[in-house]
Amino acid sequence: MQTGKKKVKRFSKFLNNKMDYILFITVLILLSLGIVMVLSASAPSALSETGKSYTYFIKQFICAIIGIIAMLFISKIDYRFYKKYYWAVYAGSVLVLLLVLVPGLGKSVNGATRWIKVPILGQFQPSEISKIGLIIFYAGYLSDHKSELKDFWKGFVKPFLLLVPPIAILYFIQNHLSVSLVIGIVTCVMMLMAGCRVLHFLLAGLVGIAGVALIVIKELLKGESSSSGSFRLDRIKTFFDPWADATGTGYQMVQSLYAIGSGGLFGVGLGNSKQKYLYIPEPQNDFIFAIVAEELGFVGCAVIIALFAVFAWRGIVISMKAPDMFGSLLAIGVTTLVATQAIINIAVVTASIPTTGMALPFFSYRRNCTCDTSSFCRNIAEYIKSRFKSLDKLQFTAYIFIMREINS
User: Fold this and answer.
1) Model's pTM, two decimal places?
2) Burial 226-251 (b: 16+ CB within 10 A, else e)
3) Least confident residue range of 120-124, 218-222, 277-281
4) Cβ(96)–Cβ(129) under 8 Å?
5) pLDDT of 368-394, one tens digit each?
6) Run of H or E residues at 124
7) Exposure b/e, 366-402, CB count within 10 A at least 16 = b
């Protein structure tokens, strides 16, 4: 009996240690798996496109190093500094989305103008900057207006109206519905955690669901395949029966399901995927989880999903221990951002929801060197350390790497 109590006590100390080993080890495992899977999934495509199997892997690795080095400099800024300028951050987050309209700067990929070209760094999506900027803005705005959060107009309607400009730009100009959805979810979670009434969200949710249902039904009845948003309608139809057009709109989903089915319980073995050989388009990007399922099987996928669950759990714990509301909302915003993108990506790859462009954090190939998330999360960690001796900055070390792989 005494031995059992000692084991429980040791495990309790391990969970609450000033160095969050659980989160730190979880991130290291996710990063290691992500790098290995990018190398495995991208090799055939890279060889076909550039004649070199390691092209994508090298670019990903170099970008990660650049991001970490930049983080070491920026992280010396006190995270509370951002709160002073959260309105300026909001304005910058909206304006940066409009850069895709600048001639010679914006670039269209697969019919969507979501990218901008930057010398040396190449191309990246400005929405990646906006996602972090809006988290900073809402953390500052909600913490400054916490006395108004129970009021319907001031605490619910007004914050949502501030979300209209970036969402409108993403949807109508960049044609980027998936990022709009992610930003909306992150904002809602931050507002709920800040103290907004759940009833307000329930009422707004019912109205929103009814509106979306009416639009979808109207489009389905009309069958307007020539409309500007027809590809979304096609994706919804494909979701219900991907094999109806297995070589057209349903091709990517069907190939993804073939990969998942081929993996079985334990997978075909690392590096032995067949679907990555130009069957799944760009397998190192949004559909990399299908290659993971094929090579590592159900067991490998379950382990990765469990690791993301542990990551979210520790992120929530860290948010609860933050010394102020601003820091807490920053932490929960970043945690929600990563968790939401992981959930959507896995749901798309497994054909649980209609196809949409969403990267898998830590895994999908991206050249976005966004070190801002890493920096202010480390700022929070250092400030928590000064206020709570039981915590250490390594509780947020995991966040150093969060935005290395993320896109929308």
Assistant:
1) 0.81
2) eeeeeebbbbebbbeebeeeeeebbb
3) 218-222
4) yes
5) 443 444 444 444 444 444 444 333 333
6) strand 122-124
7) bbbbbbbbbbbbbbbbebbbeeeeebbbbbbbbbbbb
Q: How many CA atoms lie within 13 A of 152 on its CB side?
A: 6
- Per-residue tokens: 18: 């000033």
How far apart are the C-alpha atoms of 129 and 166, rounded to whole Å?
12
Summarize the chain as % helix, strand, coil (round to 5): 70, 5, 30
Whether 321 has a pLDDT exceeding 60, the answer reads yes
CB 100 within 8 A of CB 113: yes
Sheet bearing 106-109, strands edge to edge: 106-109, 112-118, 122-124
**Tens-place pLDDT, residues 193-211:** 888 888 888 887 787 787 6
**Distance between CA atoms of 235 and 32, rounded to whole angstroms?**
33
Using alpha carbons only, give the angle 138, 158, 181 rounded to the nearest 5 degrees. Answer: 60
Would you call 133 exposed, middle or buried from its count of C-beta atoms within 10 A (0-12, 13-18, 19+)? buried
Q: In whole angstroms, give the CA distance from residue 282 to residue 366.
A: 12
Count of other CB atoms within 10 angstroms of residue 5: 9
Ramachandran angles phi, psi of 276, nearest 5°: -75, -10
Contact in structure between 379 and 75 (CB atoms under 8 Å)? yes
Task: Indicate the helix (H) or strand (E) that contains 109.
Answer: strand 106-109
Can you tell me which residue has the tokens 């997978």? Answer: 267
Q: Which of 72-76, 90-94, 319-323, 404-408 has the lowest mean pLDDT?
A: 404-408
